[in-house]
L-2,4-diaminobutyric acid acetyltransferase
Amino acid sequence: MNSSFLLRKPDKNDSKEIFQLIKSVGTLDLNSQYLYLLQTTHFQNTCSVAIYNEKIVGFVSGYIIPDDKETLFIWQVAISNEVRGQNLAMKIILDIFNKNNTSNNIKYILSTVSPSNKASQRVFEKIAIKLNTKIENKTLFSIDDFFDAHEEEIQYLIGPINN
């Protein structure tokens, strides 16, 4: 498959397709359609979609932590099954980082990953290597923090990143 993807900010018109992508991936928590509308409007500077053949095949959502303007939190990473194995998740995350780094002087990338999500763990490890910095892990949310049968969430902190 040709690995030339168009990476761009999402807009409101993308929210339904993003919702369907998250649903089809099957391993992520599916949030409300309203949340994806908010992400594509209020948070579009820290989110990105990957387009291939006029279809959204990747979505990453994130935000700058309100009390810590030097930290970019990556919330959800969804890559369509048809384009996996091309480092697309890493490319999208680094694209968001680079677009926001100039105005925010980002020193850290933070995320949480369930222990069973080995693909996401590898993505964040690769990002730390690419940015030539360290990565630290610790449990952020335990099973007891959730109502339903949800895995714990392990925090991945990448940085400090030298700009």
